[in-house]
Amino acid sequence: MSDPVEGARRRPVAPFVVLAVALAMGALFVVLAQSNSGQADTVQSYLLGKPAPTAVGTTLDGEPFDLARRKGSWVVLNFFDPTCVPCIEEHPELVTFSQDQAAVADGAELYTIVNRGSDDAVREFFDDNGGDWPVVSDPTGAISVNFGVAKVPETWIIDPNGVVRVRYPGTVTAEGLSTQLQSLREGGL
Amino acid sequence: MASATWKKVKGPGGWAVLAVVVVALLAVGIGRDTGTPTPEERVEAISKRLACPICDGESVFESRNNASSAIRNEIKQQVATGTASDDQIVTFIEQRYGGQVLLVPKSTGIDALVWALPAFAGVCAVAGLTVAFRRWKRAADTVPTDDDRALVAEARQEAADPDEP
To answer: Which residue from B54, B99, B125 is facing A150, i.e. has the nearest CB?
Structure first.
C-alpha cells in the first residue's frame, strides 16, 4: 500500500496557488501604480481642436456675452479670481498683453471669466490694477465646467473659427501669449 | 440520530441548499426595485461618483470648494434638463476634467483589471484552500495497516491484563 503522506508530497499545489495570487496582486499593484491619480497640470484637454463649448454670460457692465458670437476673432479667455495670488501676480501681464493686442490689426479679444468673488470686488480689483477688457460673470461656474477649469488662473485661446487651440493652466506672460498667438496666426501651433 | 442529520447537512445536499439561498439573495438584492430616483437623488448619486478635481480624498458631493460647487451646479442643470443619463453626465465631466475625477474605475479596457484581478485572486485562494482541505482530509482518512492493528491489539491486551509481562 502506498504511503498517503508520501503521495501528498508528490504534487505540491500550494506554491502554484501562492504564485498565482502573487502574480494577480502584483498586476493589480502595477495597474494602480500606473493610474494617473495626481493633480499635475497639463496642457492636454479633450477640447483642443474641437469647437469651443458654450460660454454664455453677462459682463460686469451688463452686456451679454456669447462666445459663439465672437467667431471671426481670436479670443483669449482668462479664468480669474480676485483673491487668488497667482491671478493677482499674472494681472500686469494681461494688461500688457491687452495693450499689445490693441496695437495689432487682428488683435485678440481678451475676456476675463470670474466664477468667484463679488462683482464689486472684481470691479475694485480692475479699478486698482488696470485692465479695461470685458469681465464676464460666471456665478454658477457653467463656463468653468464647460472648459474643465478646476484651478485659476487658466487661459484658453480660441481661433476665429471657434475652435479651441491652446490651454494654459497656471499663469501666462504677455510675451508668451503674444508669441503663441502670432504662431497660430501663421498656421503653427 | 443527531449525528446522521448533521452529516446530511454537511453533505453535498447542504452545500447545494446554501448555494441556492446565496444566489437567491443576490438576485433579490441586485434586482431590487427602488423606484424612480428623484432629481435630488440623481444629483447626489452622480456627485458621489466624481472626485473633487483639486483636492484629495473628497467626492464632489462632499467637497465645498468652488470647482466642486460648479460641477454640482452643472449636474443639477443637466439632471433638470432630463436629456442625459447618469453615465452620460459622468462622461461629460470626465471628458473635461480627465479620468482622475472618476471615483469608481471603469469596467472596460485596462481599468477592468482593477475589478477582475481581485476576483481572480479570490478564486485562486478558494481553490487553494479547497485543495489543501481535501489533502488534509485524505491524510486523516488513512486506512490502518496490519502493523497498526497489531500494535493496537497489543496495547489493548496490555491494558486488559497489566500483570502479564
So the answer is: B54
Closest to A111 measured CA to CA, from A129, A127, A125, A98: A98
pLDDT tens track of chain A, all 189 residues? 445 444 445 567 677 778 877 887 887 787 767 655 443 344 678 899 999 999 999 999 999 999 999 999 999 999 999 999 999 999 999 999 999 999 988 899 999 999 987 899 999 999 999 999 999 999 999 999 999 999 999 999 999 999 999 999 999 999 999 999 999 998 865
Q: Do B74 and A36 touch (CB under 8 A)?
A: no
Question: Which cell numbers in the block locate residue A89?
Answer: 501676480
Alpha-carbon distance of A82 to A108, in angstroms, equals 23
CB B114 within 8 A of CB A32: yes
- Measuring CA to CA, which residue among A94, A82, A64, A144 is closest to residue A119? A82
